[in-house]
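User: Write out your own:

AI:
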Amino acid sequence: MSGRDRLVDLAAERGMAHSQMQDVLHRTALRLIVPHLDDIAAWDRARQTSITDTAIAELSDSLPQVVALALDGWPSASKAVVEEMRVVEAHRCWRAGGSRADVAAVLGIPADRLIRQLKSGESELLPHRLTSCDLRKRYGWTPSAIGMYRRKGVLPPPDGRDGSRDWWWEPAIEAWERESALHWCGFCHHAFISPIGLRAHRTRVHD
């Protein structure tokens, strides 16, 4: 039975179209591989010295199947393997700080198409990046407040720039948020740097 036959059977068992089954497997593969992007080169070198996938997986706290998938791609699907590796390289570019245009170039698609896919949720790049607009939504801040917090060094410096927009890694902002012990308004869920600011907001807006 060929790889394609097995995929067709798998899709039929789940009442899914062949393309839908491919998409599910594609997304699953990415989620398995992405946490180990930095390990793939070492895995390849280890395998070239005749170390087994099982031994490599044990050293990396992973599974032999994940090692094989990262190094070999899907069995008997050369075109799919090329596409899979292109996606892995795109994630590597993203994690290295590449712009959306850089990532789109790796994928071989127009940048505006990738941007639309990211906005719609059709595509996902991890870890997420946050722009000033995202911070405004997250904390209820105005653009002038964000500018002031940046000038005063309250916010950490951006991790990168994509076109005209600065961005921060979401995990970096989450870590900053925990360390800063922000003061949240229980009525509108806006965040304030100091308790004085929170009290003034409550008096002005909610009392």
About this structure: The beta strands are 129-130, 160-162, 165-169, 183-184, 191-192.
